[in-house]
Specification:
By secondary structure, chain A is α/β, with parallel strands linked by helices. Chain A has nine helices and twelve strands. The longest helix of chain B is centred in the N-terminal third of the chain and has 36 residues. By secondary structure, chain B is mostly helical. Chain B has a single domain, classed as ABC transporter involved in vitamin B12 uptake, BtuC (Orthogonal Bundle), CATH 1.10.3470.10. The chains are: A alpha/beta (258), B mainly alpha (347). At the A-B interface, helix 2, strand 6 and helix 3 of A face helix 1, helix 9 and helix 10 of B.
Chain lengths: 258, 347
């Protein structure tokens, strides 16, 4: 299978510090890729660089086109980006937030969506299970509900690539599973989903591929059990893990410091 | 079915916005008629309409069309531009305390204009005046946003705004201090208080093109403000060129505020107050707030300008003084409401 998203020798320097060093990746559509690594490994920077949100050296190709040749709007149609924290500065209704996912498609006014945009918004709200509080202001929602609204906004873009930065952060276990399942479904529908997470257990359970970053370098890439080998766990995370297999998925539970 | 509910709720909200807009338009129209009717010679709204369209006595026609109409047009345009600028800055910075006057834009524009007058480069009716005012306003807003950085909290914005308006005020005082022409100083001092008195069509021609250009620039980017609700990075990921948007908002605010200040002097706090009055009625959507805030700004300045003509006093009260007297307590109230954020809890 040819790669949908290709990065060659990607480097990012922020304020004089090299945050990402010579990272090369080739990722296929229909995969869920988990991006893991210790704090400060460059995970968020890699997502931002792939979406073209920070300047980088090296080459990025998406769907056969060089990222640098695409307009801002065309990039926005190909990459749906979910940042950390689910910030919303004004108390807008949830539906209007989700409708912002159609902004790259020219739907700038949530009160005047085309039938096509309306359908995309409805599909996204159903997939993220936020239809029942569509009219409520996001500021009135719980953390879990708000994170699902943010997820629906990203799904509404209907972009071939979804980049999600710690989407399960500060959610209870049930909501973590909900979010990961929704992203898994998006991948099964043919999109490339990249998820930054600190939860190695969720990563191993849901991802097809795990990418391990450490100090700005790509250390390991592969199926969960291979990418998170005992050696990588010890060298990169400085822990040992309980390892097993359950329902044909890898189970990795951080266990002790080494 | 809850999606149905959501659509129904959205429908109610949009009908409400339409009625609020209709109410605002009616209010502004009424204030325009009052503004044209009030002065040493009082005319009823019907007499005003009559005179406006060429009826009534010659005296009434001259009073309405030549003496009061320029003042009313400026009151409407400058008030609307201040309201629009406030709403645009609040949308850009996602910050309810953003406004031209708190950022020192009118004060800087006044400095630019004062400098031109004091240096004798131009008389008060030349285009050099608005150009200098606009340049100074642009520099001040640009400097403020550069100092505040990309994700400025309330506190940084207010402190930087305070510093810039103090600097502009001090620079203006210095120019007056050094000016050798006492008549120029007197003229500058009166004009700094902010007033729409005795303005002619020459002033309208001087200010209106710039105000219109500023308003068009701000309105052309209106939808980007909604995307910015999700933060600059997410807005960028949705295809908004945030760097370019900032420059355009700075340019739009500078053109509008600079153009206005060049003929009216500094009129403060309308840009801060107008969006706040509209939020309970229109909602918090920064894009939908733009036009209602502009109409509210127009209504506020027209009312203030009517009030200064009605309030009995030994000498004329300047409209800029009145807007500040009302605006500053409102600002204090907003600070009280945003206390938690200002204390550093939330930014």
């Amino acid at each position: 299978m040819t790669a949908f998203l290709n990065a060659q020798s990607l480097s990012v320097t922020l304020a004089g510090r090299v945050v990402l060093r010579d990272v090369s990746l080739a990722l296929s559509a229909g995969h869920l890729v988990a991006l893991v690594g210790p704090n400060g490994a460059g995970k968020t920077t890699l997502l931002r660089a792939l979406a073209g949100l920070v300047p980088s050296e090296g080459a990025i190709h998406v769907g056969g086109d060089a990222l640098s040749s695409l307009s801002l709007r065309e990039r926005a149609r190909r990459f749906a980006y979910l940042p950390q924290g689910h910030i919303v500065h004004w108390p807008l209704p949830a539906r209007d937030i989700v409708a912002l996912g159609r902004y790259p498609h020219g739907a700038t006014d949530p009160a005047r969506l085309t039938p096509r945009d309306t359908e995309a918004v409805q599909r996204a709200m159903q997939a993220a299970d936020v239809t029942k509080f569509a009219a409520r202001r996001v500021t009135e929602l719980s953390g879990g509900e708000r994170s699902r609204v943010a997820l629906a906004r990203v799904l509404a873009v209907e972009a071939p690539v979804i980049l999600a930065d710690e989407p399960t952060n500060s959610l209870d276990p049930r909501h973590q599973l909900d979010v990961m399942k929704t992203l898994r479904t998006a991948a099964d529908q043919g999109r490339l989903v990249m998820v930054v997470t600190h939860d190695l257990g969720l990563a191993a359970r849901f991802a097809d591929t795990i990418v391990v970053l450490s100090e700005g370098r790509l250390v390991s890439l592969g199926a969960p059990a291979d990418a998170l080998s005992e050696q990588v766990m010890a060298e990169v995370f400085r822990i040992s893990a309980f390892r097993a297999e359950f329902q044909r998925e890898a189970v990795i539970v951080p266990w002790a410091e080494v | 079915m809850s999606l149905q509910n959501a659509i129904v709720t959205a429908d109610i909200a949009s009908r409400r916005r339409v009625s609020v807009m209709a109410g605002l338009v009616a209010l502004v129209a009424l204030l325009v008629l009052l503004s044209l009717g009030i002065g040493p010679v009082r005319l009823s709204p019907l007499a005003v309409i009559d005179a406006l369209f060429g009826g009534g006595s010659d005296v009434a026609q001259v009073i309405v069309r030549e003496i009061r109409l320029p003042r009313t047009i400026l009151g409407f345009a400058i008030g609307a531009m201040l309201g629009l600028s406030g709403a645009a800055l609040q949308g850009l910075l996602r910050n309810p305390l953003a406004s031209p006057s708190l950022f020192g834009a009118p004060q800087s524009a006044a400095f630019g204009a004062v400098l031109v007058i004091a240096l004798g480069l131009a008389d008060v009716r030349s285009y050099a005046l608005p150009v200098a005012a606009i340049s100074a306003a642009f520099a001040s807003v640009f400097a403020l946003l550069a100092i505040a950085g990309r994700n400025a909290g309330l506190l940084i914005l207010i402190l930087a705004g305070l510093a810039i308006s103090s600097l502009a005020g001090a620079a203006t005082a210095l120019v007056m201090n050094l000016s050798s022409n006492p008549f120029a100083v007197l003229e500058i001092a009166f004009w700094l208080l902010g007033s729409l008195e005795d303005r002619s069509f020459r002033h309208v021609v001087l200010a209106l093109p710039f105000i219109a250009a500023g308003a068009i620039i701000l309105m052309s980017r209106r939808h980007a403000f909604r995307a910015l609700s999700l933060g600059e990075e997410t807005a960028q990921s949705l295809g908004v060129d945030v760097g370019r948007l900032r420059l355009m908002v700075i340019a739009g605010v500078a053109l509008g505020v600079g153009g206005g200040v060049a003929v009216s002097g500094t009129i403060g706090f309308i840009g801060l107050v107008a969006p706040h009055l509209m939020r309970p009625l229109i909602g918090h959507d920064p894009t939908r707030l733009l036009v209602p805030s502009a109409l509210t700004g127009a209504a506020l300045l027209l009312s203030a300008d009517i009030a200064v003509r009605i309030i009995p006093s030994t000498s004329d009260i300047k409209v800029g003084v009145l807007t500040s007297i009302i605006g500053v307590p409102f600002f204090l109230y907003l600070i009280m409401r945003e206390r938690r954020a200002l204390a550093g809890g939330v930014t």
